[in-house]
Amino acid sequence: MKLKLIFGFVFLTSVFISCDEDGLVNPFKKYYTISGVYFEGSNQKPIPFADLILFSENLSSGSGKPKEIEMVTTDVNGYFEFKYPQKDKWSNLYIQKSPSGNPTNFLAKTLLKNITPNQNLTTNIYHDPFGNIRFDLVYDDIYSSGDTLYIAGLQLEKDSPLYRENLEGKNTPGLVIPFPLISNQVGPFEIYYHPDLEIQLKYPIYFAVGKSQLTEALNGDTTLRQMVLVRPFPNLSVVRLKLN
Length: 244
Hints:
mainly beta; Immunoglobulin-like; four-stranded mixed beta sheet
């Protein structure tokens, strides 16, 4: 009888371990979920029937190779839900669009990074991630009609009337803001956000009042350069620029 009980226990344990490895639910383990809606971008249009994969960076394994945890397909409304078991070995998790499936999934693409493991999370993700940026300007009352503020180096959405793809023949995109200003706060503007970058879009922008200053800035005048950290939606990134 004891042998049968021992055999039964070993058998059930192996079944539950196998269930866990095969992606099935093990009733003896705690599970966490990551859920939300997969949108195209700021238009808030859901993407249905897209294959998404949850990975762990798996740094504790020593292999240096990420571990695929689960793949799910969004429903007709773009909703997704990952369910994964608690494990101490999980490192930072990230969600990637699968390179297979329908045309939406033509290329692999990281959609969300640095997810803390072993906790529930509800968050929307975006095929074309974006953030919002606002500039708070500090300056004396010396600028008037005819003066122009240039803020170069920004990959903004192109529907802003202040946006130019090319400033001063330098193939540098940015903003052209004429004086006088209604407010010392300019924006917010929608800006591209790239979660693939390890540094969260911390990059230099160049700002100047007048074309001659802009030319100096684009030619390497570091006094007219500032590092900017852009965070993803729904955060608002506020940048303070001292013009004089």
